[in-house]
Amino acid sequence: MTSLLVAQGICVVRFDFPYMSIREQTGVKRPPDRMPVLQAHYHQLLVELDRPVIIGGKSMGGRVASLLAAEDTKEYVRGCVCLGYPFHPNKKPDALRIAHWSSMSMPLLIVQGERDAMGNRQEVATYGLEGKAEWCWLPDGDHDLKPRKRSGFTFEQHMEQAAVTVAAFVKQYGESTVE
Q1: Could you tell me if 66 and 82 are in contact, meaning their C-beta atoms sit under 8 angstroms apart?
Q2: Domains assigned to the chain
Q3: 66 three-state secondary structure
Q4: What is the DSSP letter of 31?
Q5: Could you tell me the CA-to-CA distances from 139 to 91, 124, 128 in Å, in that order?
Q6: pLDDT per position as a tens digit, 129-175
Q7: What is the largest CA-CA distance in the chain?
Q8: Is the pTM of this model over 0.90?
Q9: What is the CA radius of gyration of the chain?
């Protein structure tokens, strides 16, 4: 995704949360830190960048970004992009993770696979989120945005569509930086 966005003229800043860096250094798989720790780390990066940006992330990273965007941090955040947003934990469709969306006052883009196990198109249509976000639904895409071979779509096509959509969103709403 980074390469595709850079090819669209978007400046991209990437980072790992501390638990991922530790996992990489030690080789020991460990669970993510609690949400307040993840948010604090992400916010600190925004402070260090010290300029308005579009923030975002994939799955949990997008959830963290959306929580920060809902805090009305307009000093640093102009919008939010979520790739494969985890609307609920896998196989727990009643445990929704969207309460903070009602307090979001900035642009939000969701790029989601139509058959994402953490929020497919049919489920999300029942959440009452019309007007809360811009949507890019990828046909037959799963949580990683990958379609099945028999669908006639390719992962590369989905990634290209996602990149074009994200780049247009970034160019429309703010400075050119996405996680």
Answers
A1: yes
A2: 2-178 (3.40.50.1820)
A3: helix
A4: P
A5: 21, 15, 21
A6: 988 999 999 999 999 999 999 999 999 999 999 999 999 999 999 85
A7: 46
A8: yes
A9: 16
